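User: Can you predict the 3D structure of NADPH:quinone reductase? Sequence below.
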Amino acid sequence: MRAVVLREFGAARNLRFADFPDPRPEPGWTTVRLRATALNWHDVLVRQGRYHSPLPHVLGADGAGVRVDTGEEVVIVPSLWWGEDDSAPGADWQILGDHQPGTYAELVRVPVECVVPKPAGLSWPEAAALPLVGLTTYRALFTRGRLRAGESALVLGAGGGVATMAVGLAVGIGASVVLTSSSATKIARARSLGASGGVLYTEPDWAQAAKERSPGGRGFDLVLDSVGSWRESIQALRPGGRLVVLGASRAQEALIDVRRFYFGQYDLLGTTMGSPRDFAGLLALLESRQVAPPIIDRVFPLDQAEQAQQYLERGDGFGKIVLAQD
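Assistant: Sure. Here are the predicted structure tokens for NADPH:quinone reductase:
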């Protein structure tokens, strides 16, 4: 098969479109002929060597296509071997594309339990963009964050896939959402998706400015932090609010006022991509509520993965970036 092959960790220029061995049939696994593959920041970390993937390697966690054995149109659930405990993943858990060859390819092999029918009404790019960001955001908002109708949420970073998905899911259940961004244009686009407003995190005291946009100015019930700004995130919470942390794109360490934290009665909740039960919950929500499909920013051909990742790293987009195949 043809695939985007990484033979050396480093920059996006190390991605090469080349021949790669076809997946081998094995009991309990199935092979999917991919129609579209979505990019995630996780792919950049794999490319940089953060997960010590074997080389040569094929990146990619997200994809949608056709099962070779049955002809069924499917999406791939990239959370492998989570286990039976929904509170946290088991010792064998990994993300597709970490150590197993991923979806930047014509074919990918995954455990049978990691394919589900493609949701009706989604295009191939939208279906490919759903699994990782949808599963991660669903778990963050609902399984861990316990967000309910009538509550409010602040989401850090208006343009990323998590943020755009969070707006759709939260608004879909009847919650309100405010976002942060470095771009007024991205905030305006988020408002068109249903967000109630946003603030520029480049401005001083942005956390207080965000808090003032919460219902009654009391603070948010939940803050979704994928960047590592814990101190500011806590400042934007109401007393007893929940800080849900699912990334560290701008800071890997956080300094917080411990006394203020416990007097504020806050919850600090870590989360990652979720379990198969979380994904079932996501699909049920999509079927039962009016939730917008994943926002697609740009679609590149599979053989332009280098350019697609460079575009992702610039951070200029709004929504998901996808690699499409004929």
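The mean pLDDT is 95. The chain is about 30% helix and 25% strand.
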